[in-house]
Known about the structure:
By secondary structure, the protein is mainly α. It has a single domain (10-385), classed as Rhodopsin 7-helix transmembrane proteins (Rhopdopsin 7-helix transmembrane proteins, Up-down Bundle). It is built from 15 helices and two strands. It has helices at 10-15, 28-40, 55-85, 92-118, 129-163, 165-171, 174-192, 225-266, 274-313, 321-336, 338-345, 347-357, 363-366, 371-374, 382-385, and strands at 199-206, 209-217. Strands 1-2 form a two-stranded antiparallel ribbon. It starts with 9 loop residues before the first helix and ends with a helix. The chain crosses the membrane at residues 59-83, 95-114, 126-144, 180-198, 233-255, 284-302, 322-345. Belongs to the G-protein coupled receptor 1 family.
Amino acid sequence: MTTHATLLPSCYEESDYSTLNLSLTTDISNCSSFWDTSIKTEKIIAYQDPTYYSLNYRIIGTIFQGVIFLVGVLGNIMVVIVVTKTRSMLTPTNCYLVSLSLADLLVLMASVPNEILSYYLLGDEWIWGRAGCIIFIFLQYLGINASSLSITAFTVERYIAICHPMKAQMVCTVNRAKKIIIGVWVFACLYCSPWLFLTKTVPIYYKGHENMETCTFALSREHYLGYFFADLVIFYIFPLLLSCVLYGLIARILFTNSLGEDYGKRNGVKTSDWKKTNNNSARVQVVKMLAVVVAVFATLWMPYRVLLVYNSLAKERYMELWFLMFCKTMIFINSAINPILYNAMSVKFRRAFKKALSCGRTRQETGLVPFRSVAITTRENVAQKTTEA
Length: 389
């Protein structure tokens, strides 16, 4: 589940496992012969001709990924602000969405600027040193894995809230959600901690340039296969399978309730409590939005996942530059699109975004309250909060 977008030279792309770190337009055979002479013999240094991305590649990559970065950063920051500053928005589900936004922010901040910068550097040049190599790799993995865990967490929370409403009054609370989110990030940090030791910087040699280095894997490709496939299963396949099962069960409950209401209306039975219908409608809206988030996650990560599996099994790896840019861009879109989905599919988020963006209004008019008062809630509205987004 890797997307450290600009960190590995193309010679390591060919010999190592990751496929999203291509930052060189030169021929692979030249690269392999270069490393054979400069590293294996340690006596003969073969200097390569300077290589750069094409102008079209730079322009397209900069424009598309730059726009995605700006939209994603601003959108995810808005999600965090409206949930933490608006009393009615502080629900267990929205707490998980805040966690997802923070993870997406981490992915965008640790990946996109370096990706765009790499278009204008020489070859595989890495300018942030060994510490930067370690930190950026770790943060990218941390953000990716935390986002997957956050998606899994809010899926389970919705299942409990809708399919086990009595249990939800005790389980689906804001305080419990905060504890689960802390656990998610602690687990993600521990799982990603090996990357603090699995990367390094090595010197690279170009004619007319000195003291250059690149960021790459510290071990050979074979040592990473198990780790990468564990990522694939734990943070992609398992969350998607679990989501399919749980959303199927949720849909059955909501569909059954909807049929019951239609039957009552056809037979002249009036609903005694109109709030029940309102709550069910709100639940359907929330579930639709979250299901779309999961579907988008699965779709946008699929090109990279397919490429990862193919390149790990095929004798000749597929390393076409434009397709690699496409895979990376899809991952960046995945980290930027969720706030747009919330605005499009959730009336409450749409209203909260408008209020947060409005100018010249008082705190009472916009519905914003100090953060410290957000956590103050009553037991009577816990059950209602579990049905809202």
